[in-house]
Write a structure and sequence with these properties.
By secondary structure, the protein is α+β, with helices and mostly antiparallel strands. It is about 55% helix and about 15% strand. It folds into two domains: about 50-145, Alpha-Beta Complex (Hemagglutinin Ectodomain, Chain B), CATH 3.90.20; about 145-200, Roll (Nucleotide Exchange Factor Grpe, Chain A, domain 2), CATH 2.30.22. It contains four helices and six strands; from the N terminus they run H-H-H-H-E-E-E-E-E-E. Strand 4 and strand 5 form a beta hairpin. The longest helix has about 70 residues, at about 50-115.
């Protein structure tokens, strides 16, 4: 018995006719549209300037560079000014300290002479003077004042004043033979020069 030929239904016939086959003409059109969109985007991203605008931008760049240079110079000048004023302030402070200490050195000299006078070392008066003199020396040390070592040292015109010369074969040339008045320094600053006698 042979199989009966199955006839397609009307719905199947309509579906078959409704599905369009892909045409080769649609692909180039889509590619053309895509390329046009890309070209439009490129044009939108790009910028064009007139000659006047370019000159204005170059002028603005030069002005910006000039302002930067001025800022750097002003910063350097301010830093130098700050260091200079700090140094001047410290110098003024040291000068004021030195001037004040110099006025009190006369009292130091009198105490030193009083302690050097001949007398009974066991007397309460002499012991009291020695104690005051030692206390005075400690105060000067706390203030940073140092006595200039001159006795037996080579003569130094920066820290000493020579008022006399003496011939002494036991001492070398330009060696301090005697100190008449002690000299003092405060740090690197000489508060008072030592008054000395120089040999040979």
């Amino acid at each position: 018995m042979s199989e009966e030929t199955k006839q397609p239904t009307p719905e199947e016939v309509e579906e078959t006719q409704a599905v369009p086959e892909p045409s080769e003409e649609t692909a180039p059109e889509e590619e053309t549209e895509k390329s046009e969109k890309k070209s439009r985007k490129k044009k939108e991203k790009g910028y064009t300037f007139t000659r006047e605008q370019v000159e204005q931008m170059e002028l603005a760049a030069k002005q910006l560079e000039s302002v930067k240079d001025q800022f750097v110079r002003l910063t350097a000048e301010y830093e130098n000014y700050r260091k200079r004023t700090a140094k001047e302030k410290d110098s003024l402070y040291q000068d004021a300290r030195a001037d004040t200490i110099r006025e009190f050195l006369a009292v130091y000299d009198n105490l030193e002479r009083a302690c050097a006078t001949e007398g009974d070392d066991d007397s309460p008066h002499k012991k009291g003077l020695v104690m005051i003199f030692h206390q005075y020396q400690e105060i000067l040390k706390k203030l940073g004042v140092e006595e200039i070592e001159a006795q037996g040292q080579p003569f130094d015109p920066e820290t000493m004043n020579a008022v006399m010369h003496v011939d002494n074969e036991d001492l070398g040339e330009n060696v301090v033979a005697q100190v008449f008045q002690a000299g003092f320094r405060l740090g690197d600053k000489v508060v008072r020069h030592a008054i000395v006698q120089v040999a040979n």
